[in-house]
Design the sequence.
DNA sequence: TAGATTGTTAATCGATTAACAATC
DNA sequence: TAGATTGTTAATCGATTAACAATC
């Protein structure tokens, strides 16, 4: 938190507490816009012309008051007594999220996860274009993954610059993540989606979002344990004198290649 | 929101607003415990005996006031003027998260992502044991992935029951996710980690957490756009009369198999 | 005792929600 | 006009943070 480098704060806050500039859409609302968009797109495909806040909220898995409040930050796009025009709302939300433009991304680290992401259909359909797949393992170079040749990480800087890549996806092992991140940032990337289980340090102005399998599972385990505890009842049995064994060891490798 | 089925609320809330029972640890704190645990485990491996809230907070990427507040929900495990005993804290957090017990999980849908998860080292090291890999494609049955044979989804119910699986990971295409979810829940699974881009409906008492690639990227794009907007300055140019084209289409496939 | 650092308080901030007036 | 549904208000709740007394 010193040195002019900021460290991502909570698991997923991006850089911005800054009520995101302009009119200022709250972070919690921004995080839900993609959910609404997905539900709306499904309605659009079924040629449903309009939808009420109640229906759309149910489809997106939120309550309707929250949805209306969220939409109120975007403007008044509904019609009282009627609902929202599906197509129009799809467009407005897409525009708000920046999905009406082209976003070239690079994926660094082409292990199983990198593969999975490269093949992910949700990419292309939302304005995200895979500009390159990069891996530190020269043996992978040239190999086709999802129709694209894997290229060596030596080419990272050149690709980021020439393709004007502003978003980088890191699927390397944790040990390589910070270094890859530094290089991406130095080359001009200002948003990073990090799948490596590491805290990345980035300069101000760079957003980092983190996806962490292990953390999600641990949170589930916590709740699962509490459910089981309903039967046992945790009679606040105090702390055993000795820490004992059972200490969890860190063996966090998400992928094998790259760096 | 009717029928006794609850729908997961925000992207990642699990079922519990219930200040998680007992002493009641806030959800935001629970979500950070794995981060602290990771940082502590790294210190433990370097044989660091004690750590201050300031140091640990920096390593975990949070501020120290938040960390101390978080720890205060667990108990008073520090020593004023000294800091926290690393090993002891690792043990306490592990215990709190339920990681000192064995959690058998099944992964349903063995495409690239299922592969990546099966190979994920962070699993085994934290008490999570892959009890089975399941896929609806019979052609995959018997094939070894991460040393385990893929089994047909027909065996799902039997495996969940016999292995006492309470956590299921869904990496199927979106179309199959709800059905797979229903079967898992019917068989006894009470926590689900969903990678398919679908809102899952589950009965009360079942926790769902969602990991969604596309959503994370869209949130990054939003912030990225705002950064660019600093130059252009969005002079509140009002809504174009016609929605126009550029409508984003839904082609969300995360994987190919299963269901 | 002096220095360091925790654990807690209290203020602030942001997010959620119910309720309802506005209005189609 | 009557019915439906939005957009907004205001109350509530939960999370963050700085500051500092307690205490090692």
Sequence:
């Amino acid at each position: 938190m010193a040195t002019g480098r900021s460290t991502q704060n909570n698991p997923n806050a991006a850089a911005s507490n800054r009520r995101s500039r302009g009119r200022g859409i709250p972070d919690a609302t921004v995080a839900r816009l993609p959910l609404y968009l997905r539900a709306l797109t499904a309605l659009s495909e079924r040629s449903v012309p309009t939808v009420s806040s109640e229906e759309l909220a149910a489809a997106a898995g939120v309550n309707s008051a929250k949805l209306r409040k969220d939409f109120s930050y975007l403007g008044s796009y509904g019609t009282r007594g009627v609902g929202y025009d599906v197509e129009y709302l799809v467009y407005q939300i897409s525009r708000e999220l920046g999905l009406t433009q082209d976003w070239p991304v690079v994926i660094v680290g082409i292990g199983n996860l990198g593969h999975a992401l490269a093949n992910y259909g949700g990419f292309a359909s939302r304005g995200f274009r895979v500009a390159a797949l990069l891996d530190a393992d020269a043996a992978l170079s040239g190999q086709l993954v999802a129709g694209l040749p894997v290229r060596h990480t030596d080419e990272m800087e050149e690709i980021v610059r020439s393709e004007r890549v502003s978003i980088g996806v890191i699927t390397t092992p944790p040990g390589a993540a910070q270094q890859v991140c530094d290089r991406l940032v130095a080359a001009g990337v200002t948003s990073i989606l990090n799948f490596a289980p590491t805290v990345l340090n980035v300069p101000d102005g760079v957003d980092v979002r983190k996806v962490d399998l292990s953390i999600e599972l641990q949170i589930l385990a916590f709740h699962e344990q509490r459910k089981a505890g309903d039967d046992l009842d945790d009679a606040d049995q105090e702390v055993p004198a000795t820490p004992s064994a059972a200490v969890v060891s860190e063996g966090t490798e998400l992928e094998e290649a790259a760096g």
